[in-house]
Amino acid sequence: xxxxxxxxxxxxxxxxxxxxxxxxxxxxxxxxxxxxxxxxxxxxxxxxxxxxxxxxxxxxxxxxxxxxxxxxxxxxxxxxxxxxxxxxxxxxxxxxxxxxxxxxxxxxxxxxxxxxxxxxxxxxxxxxxxxxxxxxxxxxxxxxxxxxxxxxxxxxxxxxxxxxxxxxxxxxxxx
Length: 175
Description:
alpha+beta
């Protein structure tokens, strides 16, 4: 599966992505945004890639890899989660490796993902939860048209006895 943009494209995971996923999923600095608390083994990630059926209707989730077109370098991921057919909505998360931030890749990836959700999956809305102090992500989602529709107080535990608010952002398909 290829969803092409001007500078990047989104594709299905491949076995060759296991080492990248191992690096990214085990980066403790990212765990607070992915609700991860334990490391992943290569074996678990290999099984995840191998057993992903890429059927969002069955799995209720989908991960696509973000690839820079000019270099064919995999630079991040787009995750669709909590897919609800009945309510025509899905959660969306994005990760772009720090070496590739500030180049517009996150915005382009997010727009490709939104287009996929609205034109291929025919969803009514996409949403995301973003920690209140994550200004770059808040700016990204708002630039893509998402609106803050609620503040979840003390939603994410980020340290012992420390909780952070999170914004619930939605983008409604008006077509």
